[in-house]
Amino acid sequence: MATITTEMIKQLREATAAGILDCRKALENADGDYNKAVDYLREKGLATAAKRADRAASEGTLELYTHGAGRVGVMVEVNSETDFVGRSENFRKFAHEIALQIAAAAPRYIKETDIPEADLEHERQIAAAKAREDSKPEAIIPKIVEGSLEKFKNETVLLRQVYIRDDKMTVQSLMNDAIVSMGENIVIRRFVRWELGESTQD
After folding, report:
1. DSSP sequence for 118-165
2. Are the CB atoms for 179 and 52 separated by under 8 Å?
3. Are 78 and 172 found together in one domain?
4. Residue 202 included in any domain
5. CA angle 56-61-67, nearest 5°?
6. What pLDDT, on the 0 to 100 scale, is given for residue 107?
7. Would you state the pLDDT for residue 51?
8. How many domains is the chain partitioned into structurally?
9. Reported pTM
10. Are 96 and 130 within one domain?
11. Residue 17 in domain
C-alpha cells in the first residue's frame, strides 16, 4: 500500500476541488496512483450536465482548424472550469470536434438565444411570403412559418445542429456527454469561420 502524503492530497484537491477526506480515500483506493484517483473522484461525483451549467468556466483552449487546403478556417474558444481539464486530451479532442463541425456545417450562432430578433423576423417574413406564393391557405400559414423557423434554427444554431459524425446526435448532446464524462461545465464561448473569397459583408 502506497503512503499517502499531504502533498499528494493537496495536488489532487487543487485539480478536482474535491474534499480532503474524499481525496485521501480516492488516493488510498487507487494505491497512490494520481490518474486513477482522479478517475475515482469523477466516477463518484458524476453529475448531470444541467447541474454543472451554472459553474464558471474560464480555462480551456483556442482551437484552430483549416480545411480543404486552406479554403476554410475556423477559430473557436472552448472553456472548462479548470486548467487541469482544459489541458486534457479528451477536452482537446472535444474542442477539435467543435471546430470540425463549424468548418463543415457553417453555423451562424452558438445557441438559440444568440439569434437577433431582426433575423428571426426576417425569416418569418420570407416563410410567410413563400407560403402565400405557393397559394397555401391563410389559416395554416402560421404553422408553416413556425416549421420554417425551427428548420432555420436547426441549420444555423451550432448546439442544435446534427453532429457531423453521428446523425442521431446534436452538438448539444455531444457537449452534454463531454460535460458528464469530464465532470466539469464546458462552454463554447465564441467562434469565427472564414471561407476563401467571402466578402467582408457576409
Report:
1. HHHHHHHHHHHHHHHHTT--GGGHHHHHHHHHHHHHHHHBGGGSEETT
2. yes
3. yes
4. no
5. 135
6. 97
7. 42
8. 3
9. 0.67
10. no
11. yes
Q: Are residues 133 and 84 in the same domain?
A: no
User: Does 74 share its domain with 140?
Assistant: no
Length of the chain counted residue by residue: 202
- Determine the Cα–Cα distance for residues 117 and 153; give it in Å rounded to an integer: 13
Question: Looking at residue 112, what DSSP letter applies?
Answer: G
Alpha-carbon distance values, 9 to 41, 44, 184 (Å)? 12, 17, 20
* 179, three cell numbers: 460535460
Domain extent for 164: 50-111+159-195
Do 40 and 128 lie in a common domain? no
> Concatenated DSSP letters for 48-73?
-HHHHTTS---EEEEEEEEETTTTEE
Residue 146 domain flag = yes
DSSP code for 109: B
Mean pLDDT for back-to-back runs of 10 residues, the chain (202 residues)? 82 70 86 82 52 61 87 93 89 96 96 91 91 87 90 94 92 88 88 83 48
| Residue 173, all three cell numbers | 448532446
Q: Is 121 left (phi over 0), alpha (psi -120 to 50) or beta?
A: alpha
